[in-house]
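[09:14] KT: can someone run the structure on this one? pasting the chain below
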Amino acid sequence: MLVAAAICPCPPLLVPEVAAGAAPELDGLRAACLDAVGVLAAARPDRLIVLGPAEQAGRGPHPQGALGSFRGFGVDLEVSLGAADDEAPERELPPSLAVGAWLLTRADWDDAPVEGLGVGEPLTRDRCLPVGRELAASAPRIALLVMGDGSARRSVKAPGYFDERAEGFDAAAARALGSADTAALTALDEELAADLQASGRACWQVLAGAAQGADLRGELLHEEAPYGVGYFVAAWS
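[09:31] RB: done, structure tokens below
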């Protein structure tokens, strides 16, 4: 069953080497993410699964030791999903899981075996919920690190330009994540999320499926929208 979850955003800019001179702007966000990962460690899970949005090539399971890099963002930096073994898998982590792996490295994670799951952003809620239930049933004590961003249309300088619906969508998502409200997460509008380029929607709905019946409590640790993108950090335990 699910015993804890941490919800974090997944911009590569979270990695200071990628952000370069702008790195201090996200110091508060990084600190909150590490606090959320600490909640996972305190729950003493048998297994940690990192979820993140992924394009077709990165979807599906990624075993412990899978490698990711930030070379596509101009930085020669490689990360491993948990402890790497002698024969690392050939398939590279998608960017969202690479950011998750980087967070775990920063947190010195060695509390449980780690796996990854790349989730397609178009995945419907009717498919997300059973995926979550399967994850929760895969070990006696499961923890999830759920990567994903809110709307990318919060301002005219945002990646998707300004959409007046973005702030309301993000406010609803933040309330649901901060209160561990699985019904509200399940109710997030798929088409609206796609219009607003909210990459976290499907992963959040997988989390909703995993948390059904777990009676977890949530806390919103951080919320901001730099660069016109909604970033939320929450912890469930």
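[09:33] KT: thanks! The mean pLDDT is 96.
[09:34] RB: yep, looked fine to me
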